[in-house]
Amino acid sequence: MNMYREVRDKLGLTRDQASELLETIEPSKLERIESEKQLPSPEDVMIMADKYGEPNIRNYYCANQCPMGQRYVPRIKFIDLEKTVLKLIASLNSMHAKQEKLIEIAEDGKISDDEMMDFIGIQKDLEKVSLAVSAMEVWTEKMMSSGIIDMEKYKELLNK
C-alpha cells in the first residue's frame, strides 16, 4: 500500500478529513497521490509530514521518490529510542576502532590499491553512523510532533 495512504489510514482519516487537515491539498489530488497516479511535490510532502505528525514521510519521499534523494538519501526505519541509541553506539565504536587506519590511509592524500578494501570498509561503517544519526533525528521529530518532547523547549536549548 502507498505510504501516504497508510499514514492517513493509521490516523483514521477519510480523504476529505485529511484534505481539510492538510488545508492546501484537495481530496482529488490526495487520491492521485495515494493511488500513485501523481507524485507529491516536496511542499505536499512537508505539509503531510507536519500535519500528520509523521516525519518519516519526508525520508520516504526523499529516499524513494525524489530523483536526487534516491541516489543520496538512505531509507530510515522508525525504531524506538533504545534500539536507535544502541545502533548509534555500536556504529561509533566500530569507527573508533578504525580511526588509526583511516589516518594511515589519508596521510598521503591517496588511496593505494592495498588500502582500497580498508577504505571501503570504513566508508560502510560511516554509512552506519550516518543512518543511526538520521534515525535519531526522525525519532526526535516524531516525539516532538506527538508532544512527548516539548518542541519549543527543545529548539530553545538547541539554539544555545
Blueprint (SSEs and pairs):
Elements: H1 3-10, H2 15-22, H3 27-34, H4 42-52, H5 56-64, H6 67-72, H7 81-106, H8 116-145, H9 151-158
Helix pairs in contact: 4-5, 7-8
Rg result = 20 Å
Sheet having the most strands = none
- Termini Cα gap: 42 Å
Number of helices: 9
Secondary-structure element series = HHHHHHHHH
Shape: elongated
User: What is the beta-strand fraction?
Assistant: under 5%
How many domains make up the coordinates? Answer: 2
Tell me the number of strands. 0
The mean pLDDT is 91
Look at the helices and sheets and give the structural class.
mainly alpha
- By oligomeric state, this entry counts as single chain
Helix content: over 70%
> Spans of 5+ residues with little confidence (pLDDT < 50)?
none
